[in-house]
Protein 1
Amino acid sequence: MSGSISAASVEETLKDFWATRPRRPHDGRKIAGVAAGIARRYQIDPVIVRVAFVAMALCNGAGVLIYLLGWLLLAQADDEVSAAESLIGRGHSSTPTALTVLLGLAVIPATGFFVDGGFTMVGGVLLSVGAIYLLHRGRGQLNRPEPAVAFGGGGSGEGEVGLGGTGGKVSATDEQTTTGGVTPPAWDPLGAAPFAWDLPEPGGAPEPVAASTPVVARRPRSRVGVATFGVALVALAGSLVTSSYSDWFHAQHVIGLLVAVLGGGMVLGALRGGGGRGLIWLVVPLSVVGVLLTTVDFDVDGKQMGSTKASPTTVAEVLDRYTASVGEVELDLTGLPNTGTVTTGVEVGLGSAKVRVPADADVTVDCRADLGSVRCLDRESDGEGRHESVTDYGDDGPGGLKIVLDVRSDLGEVEVRRG
C-alpha cells in the first residue's frame, strides 16, 4: 500500500478497498455503525471518525451524504452483502428492504444538494473521499478480513482446517499405528505398553521456565497535537485579519475552518501512531457551536459585539433599534415621561435582549427567540422557535405613554418586564 501514486496504483487501491471494505459492527455503534466500522477496519479511534463526519456535515451536509452512502454500501458484520447489494439480489442483508429504499430516497436530495451546494459541499465530499483513500492506502493492510479455509475433501465447516486429501478419513497406515485413536510415543512404536504412554519422554526437554514480563519502551509523545493547535491559531488569526476585507469569514465559516484544521490534525496523528487525541476537547465544542450557528439564521451586523446598556430619559433619545451580534442589550425605558409614543426594537444574534418598561405605560410587544427562552411580561416559554405577542395597558388602564417593542434573539434569552 505504499509507493508513488499513479493511475494503476489508484485503481488497485480502490479495488482493494471495495474488496475489503469495512463492515458495520453491532456493538459500539451510535447510529448505523459506519464510523465504528471504519475505525475498527483501520484500527483508529472511532471518536476521530465521528468528529470527521461532524466536520464534513458542516460543509453544507457533505458528511450526511457520505454517511448515507456508507449505510447503504457497507454490509453489517454478519451479513453476506450490503443493503444496496441485497436490494438488487446479490445476497442476503439483515437491513429491512423498506429501510433500504428510504435510505436510497434520502440520498437523492442529498446528491441534488451536492450539485447545487457550491464549493463547500463539493469540497467536503472530495475531501471525505480523499481521506478514505489515503486511510486505506496507509492502513489498508491492518485488520484485513481473513479468507475462509475450506475443509479438505469437501468438509462441512467454513474456516475448518482440512486433513490433506483424505476427506477427513484416517488411512489404513494410520489405523495400524494407532490404538484407540491415540498415536504411540516414539519409544513404543509397536504400541505394546499403552499403560505407560502418559509418562514423560525419556531424556525429554525440561519444562520451560516462564519468561519475565518484558519492559515495554514508552512511546515518545507525538508533536502532531501541538503543531495542529499552532496551525489552528494561525488560521484563526488570519481569518480575523481577512474578515475586514472579505464577507466570507463569518463566525460559521471560521469555526468550520478551525474544525477542519483540528480534525485533519487528529487524522494525521492517528495515522502516525495515535497523536493528537487531546484535540477532541476542542473539536467537539467547536462542532456543536458550528452546528448551532448554521442552524440559526443570524442577520445582525457581525461587527457589533459586547454589552450595550441604554437608559434614555426623553422620547427623542430612544433609537430606532438596538443591536448586538454577540453579547447582550439592556434597554431601560422606565425614565421616560408619561406621555408620547415610543417605537423601538432590540435584536441580538447570540446573547440576551432585556427591556424594562414603566409600570403604567401602554405596551405592545413582540418577543421572539429562534432558540432559547422568552419572558414577555406575563408570558413565558422555552425551546425552539419561541414567539409571544402581548398588549398590556398596565395597572392604570389605557392612557399615558405608549410603547411599541420588537425584541428578539437568534440564540439566547429575551426578557421584557415592568419595573
Note: The two ends are 72 Å apart (CA to CA).
Protein 2
Amino acid sequence: MPTKRLYFLDNLKWFIIWLMTLFHAAMCYMAYAPEWWYVVDTAQPVFSATVFILWVDIFIMPVMFFISGYFGLMSLTKHGAGTFWRKKIGRIAVPWVFGSMVFAPLVTYIILASRHAPVDFWTFYTTLFWGPLYEQAQYWYLGALLALYVLLTIAVAVAPSLWRQSMTPKRPSVPLYVALIVLSTASIYATGSVMHPDTWTFYAYILVLQPVRIVTYILVFFLGAWAWRSRWFEMGGYTPSAWFWGLATLVLSPAYLYQKLFLAASGADAATLALANAVTQGPFMWSATLFLVAFFQRQLDYTTPLLTNLSATSYPVYYLHMEVLFPVAWLFTTLPGLNVYLKYIVVCALTLGICYVLSKYILLRIPCFGGTGK
C-alpha cells in the first residue's frame, strides 16, 4: 500500500540548503572571520553575522544527515543493495568526484585570488591544493554520505531483521534520546580535548571531515534510518514534540552562544572550554534538529507549485552555491561604501537567484540531478 509523500521533509531539505547559502555568505562579513575563508569583506565586519554563523552551524548538517538516513534506508529496502548502489553511484558518487576534482579547486583558489596572491591557478592546483589547502568545498558532504551508506548497507546485511520496517508505528523511548545526547556530548568532549572543535581533516584525499562531529553525524544519520524503520510521521505514528524541542532550543541556544563568544575571553583554561563546548553543543544540536523536523511536519507538510520547484532544485542549488556565491561576494568587496547588510542581502539574492535558474533550466536536465534519487 503506497504511503503518503512526506512533503515536509522535501521542504525542510530545500530550506536547509538555502539557509546553508545564507550561512556561507554571512561568513564573508562576520567579525573574527577565519583567515582561510574564501572571501572576507574587511570593510564592515559585523558581530551579528558571527552570532548567526555560530548558531546555524550546529544544526544545518545534522538535519541533512537525518533526512538522508530516513530516505536512505527506505531506498535500500525498496530497491535492494545492487540497485541502491547503482542509483547512488550515478546520483552522488559521480557528482562528488567531479565536484571535488574540478569545482573544489576553483573555489579554493578564490582564497588566494581574492587576496591578490601572486600564484597562478595551475601552480596552485599542482602544489598547494594537494597539500595544505586540500579540501572538497561543499562536496565533502557527498563523500561523507557515501561512507554512511556503506555503513548502512553493512548494518542491513548483518542484521536485516533489526532494520526491517516494523508492522506498526513505534515510539522512541526517553532512554534512546538520553543515550544519543550523551554519546554526542562525550564524543565532542573527547575529540575537542585534543583539537580545536572547528578543525577540518582530510583522510587519504577521500573524506574531508570535522573530527569533533563525526560521531554525531553517524548517530543522527542512523536515527533518521531508525525513524523510517519505526514508521515515524505516518498516520498514528510518532513525531517529535515541537513544543518540547523548541523550548529546549530556546534555552540551550544562549548557553551555547555564551560559551563560544565569551567564555574564552574570561580566561577559562582549555579543559574547561572543551567541556563547556561539549555540554552545550551536543544537547543544542539534538534539540534544534528535532525541533525543525517537528515544526516542518506540523506546519509545512504540503506542497504548491513553488514548493515543488524549490524541492526539485534543492540538490542542484547545493551543488552550485559556493561556485556562484564567492565570485559575487568578491565582486561586491569593490563597493566598500555600500551598507554591509544591504550588501549581504543583494549577494544572497543574486546567488540564490542564479543558482535557482541554473538548476531549473540546466542541471535538472542532467540525469544525476533530475528525479528524487529515492
Note: The longest helix spans residues 60-113.
Protein 3
Amino acid sequence: MPVTEHTEDIEFRVQELTLRGKLFRPTDGTERPPVAILQGGLGGPAESMFAIARGFTDAGLACLIYDHRNTGYSHGEPRQQFDPWQQCRDLRDVITHLTLRQDIDPDRIALWGISIGGANSLFTAATDRRVKAVVSIIPPVSGWSARTLQPADTLAELEALIPADRQAQLRGERAASIRLHGVPEPGDPVMFSDQEGLEFVENMIHHLPSFRNEITISTLDRIFEMEVRAYAERITAPVLMILASKDTVAPVEEAREMYERIPDPKQVIEYPGQHYEILSHHFPEIVTRSADWLAATLRG
C-alpha cells in the first residue's frame, strides 16, 4: 500500500556554490529511514525525476534529487557544463550534508543513477566507503568509448573546437556550446541523435522549465576523460547493475566487463533492447525493482 511522503525543498552549500533539489521522506515507518541519492542522465534536470520519488518512499526509503552545479536550479558557471569528476566530488560533499541530518539514517546512504548518473554512482562508491549500496542503470563506463558516438568527421570537428574554446574562455569569452539532442546538420553537431533517444527526451524532459537542450563544448573534454571502469575493484558496497542488451550509447560489453571485476555482493539484470529503449518500455518496473532491492540491501 502506498505511503504518504513529506517533500522538502533543499539547498546544499558545496564549496562556493549552492546546489538545489528536493528531499522526499516517507511519513510512515521508521523515524530515520535510509536514503537514496538519485541522479539522471546527461542533461536531465532534477525535476525530470521528481515523479519517481514515490517509488522509493513506497519502499520505505527517503530520496534526494538535486541539480548538479552549472545546471537546472543550482548555481555555477558556465551554464550547462557537465563535469562528471566534479559532480562526484560534489556528491561526496552532499553525502556529508546528509550525515548531519537528524531525519535520515546516516549509516544507510545509497546511490542510484541512470546513464552518466549511474557511472557517477559507481565511481563515488569506489572512492567513498559511506556509500552502502549502488544501483547503476545503463552506465557509460568509458569516456574514451563516448567518442564513438560521433561519426569520425564530426568527432574531428568537435575535438578541434575543444582547445579553441579553452582559448576563448581564457580570453573571457562565453563558453561555446552544442545541442544535446536533435538531428545533426552540417556545421551544427549534436551529442545524441538516435531516434529512440529523441522520442524519450521529448516525452520526459523537453517540456520542463529547467531543461536546456545544450551542453558546453568543454563538457565533451570532461566526459572523454572519465574512465569509471578503472575503479571496479575498489567498490565494496553491494551493486545492482541494470543493462540494455543491445546498448551502443553506453556500450554494454564494457559495462559487463566492469561488472565482472566488481567484488561481490552484486547482481546484474539485462533488459532486451537499446539504451533509451529499455527506459521507454520498462522504466516503472526498473524503478520498482531497484527501489525494492535497495530497501532489502540497506536493511541488511
Note: The chain has nine helices and eleven strands.
